[in-house]
Design brief:
InterPro entries: DHS-like_NAD/FAD-binding_dom (IPR029035), NADH_DH_b (IPR012136), PNTB-like (IPR034300). The protein is α/β, with parallel strands linked by helices. The chain contains 19 helices and eight strands. The strands form two sheets. A six-stranded parallel sheet has the order 5-4-3-6-7-8. A two-stranded antiparallel ribbon has the order 1-2. It is elongated and about 85 Å long.
Length: 488
């Protein structure tokens, strides 16, 4: 009876994951989708704790289980409440790394159980007989393969996510060297080779197999560091998305290990959604997925070289002049960037939008796929300020509207509006699709200073004749603009 109820609970949990993911596709239903999926997960966890049976016996270590749940829950809630929106990418990376670590630890525990089981079952017989029995057992081989996949993918995701967290917080700098691509591929090939050998010798020599298993684990951690370490510039959202898909695949492997449909479904959904998002973002960044996997893009050296080229002079615009330009425009497109997130200026931006609309100005937002520090960063910020989803233009739609736009207001965006991506083959972002704001009649750029963006290069847009710089904190500038526009 208990197993039947647990199966129904798992089915409900799987359905809530699918419904929740569907709701997450739109900002106005994302919050509800998150709650639906969380409710399904909570139900599945409680069902597993109280209804799961091991050798027809219920779980007995409730003290350890609930202690872990309480500690982890308290840390998670406090971290989520404390974190600022500007630090959300770092938190996503850290949480994702914890998911990868869990998958790797599960693999270690289950491999150890498998080794002990083999020794207990076949201790009385000869090694030759043991080898024959195990080589004929496809179930044992399949189990080892799944454990290895979960170990490798989880370890890569864990190490890579921790490095990504360090890079986003500024604690870890971009690092690359000549021949790093070959080293990456060599380490990956060694991991695959040792894993195949382990599957082949498994059962023949459990002691050797255990040593090889831990060597594979250490190499996977090393590869995770190598994979993320050289990545820089505007490419960080891509690697966060890819690492997220890795964690999902590792979780799905855990679902196979435990024959747990909820774990399997959740892992498949996260893995597939993350993979699809990674491919879409690679397309938006004009990067190939192969280059992402070997960690060969986004190095800082090229950026430093490109940032040193000679530029002309930029011109500033006063607050009152900017207010006049915006107030008398027919159509204004706002381009949000990381500077908007740093200043927590999304609410002030929405107020400016409403004020301009009261004066008869058509206002829209142009969203670049990799603006900010994680996928959907700008969408989340604007949704928090209740900006209507219909006003958000994807890159292709925005580029089609820029030629008929009177004024573009850029708030902290840098690399995603840099024309060098189209005109300068020496630029590290060359070939990356951008928001073609230079096609508008007037461009106003709000930045704190002329300091280069995350890619470490100068922005050619800032030195064009139609571009004017409006320096200052985004939130303060928007509030002052709002006051000035009311007086126009």
């Amino acid at each position: 009876m208990g197993s039947s109820i647990l199966s129904i609970i798992y089915l409900i949990g799987s359905v809530t994951f699918i419904l929740g993911l569907k709701m997450l596709s739109k900002p106005d239903t994302a919050r509800k989708g998150n709650l639906v999926a969380a409710a399904g997960m909570s139900l599945a966890i409680l069902g597993t704790i109280f209804l799961y049976r091991v050798n027809d016996a219920p779980l007995h270590n409730y003290g350890w289980i609930f202690t872990g749940l309480v500690i982890g829950g308290v840390i998670g809630v406090l971290s989520a409440k404390k974190v600022k929106m500007t630090a959300m990418p770092e938190m996503v990376s850290m949480f994702n790394g914890m998911g990868g670590a869990c998958a790797a630890l599960i693999s270690i525990v289950e491999f150890d159980h498998l080794i002990k089981l083999i020794k207990n079952l076949y201790a009385p017989v000869s090694d030759d007989h043991l080898a024959l029995q195990l080589l004929e057992s496809s179930a044992s081989k399949g189990m080892v393969i799944i454990i290895l996949l979960s170990l490798i993918i989880g370890a890569v995701s864990c190490a890579g996510s921790i490095v990504a967290w360090g890079k986003l917080t500024g604690k870890v700098k971009d690092f690359s060297f000549n021949g790093q691509h070959f080293l990456n591929m060599g380490v990956l090939a060694l991991i695959v080779g040792l894993s195949v050998w382990l599957v082949c010798i498994f059962g023949i020599s459990p002691g050797t197999g255990l040593i090889v298993f831990y060597v594979v684990f250490l190499l996977a951690l090393f590869y995770g560091v190598l994979f993320v370490l050289p990545i820089g510039g505007a490419d960080m959202p891509v690697v966060i998305s890819l690492l997220n898909s890795f964690t999902g695949v590792a979780a799905a492997c855990g679902g196979f290990l435990y024959s747990n449909p909820v774990m399997l479904t959740g892992g498949i959904l996260v893995g597939s959604a993350g993979t699809i998002l990674t491919i879409l973002m690679c397309k938006a960044m004009n990067r190939s997925l192969k280059n992402v996997l070997i960690g060969s893009f986004g190095g800082g050296a090229a950026g430093a070289a490109a940032s040193g080229k000679e530029q002309g002079n930029y011109k500033e615009i006063s607050l009152n002049d900017a207010a006049v330009v915006l107030a008398y425009a027919n159509k204004v497109i706002i381009v949000p960037g990381y500077g908007l997130a740093v200043a927590q200026a999304q609410h002030a931006c929405h107020e400016l939008e409403k004020q301009l609309e009261e004066k008869g100005v058509e206002v829209k937002y142009a969203i670049h796929p990799v603006a900010g520090r994680m996928p959907g960063h700008m969408n989340v910020l604007l949704a928090e300020a209740d900006v209507p989803y219909e006003k958000l233009l994807e890159m292709e739609d925005a580029n089609a509207e820029f030629p008929t736009t009177d004024a573009v207001l850029i708030l902290g965006a840098n690399d995603v509006v840099n024309p060098a991506a189209k005109s300068d083959p020496a630029s590290p972002i060359y070939g990356m699709p951008i928001l073609e704001v230079e096609n508008a009649k007037v461009v106003i750029v709000n930045k704190r200073s002329m300091k280069p963006g995350y890619a470490g290069i100068e922005n050619d847009l800032f030195f064009q004749p139609k571009t004017s710089m409006l320096f200052g904190d985004a939130k303060k500038v928007l509030q002052e603009l709002l006051s000035a526009i009311k007086e126009v």
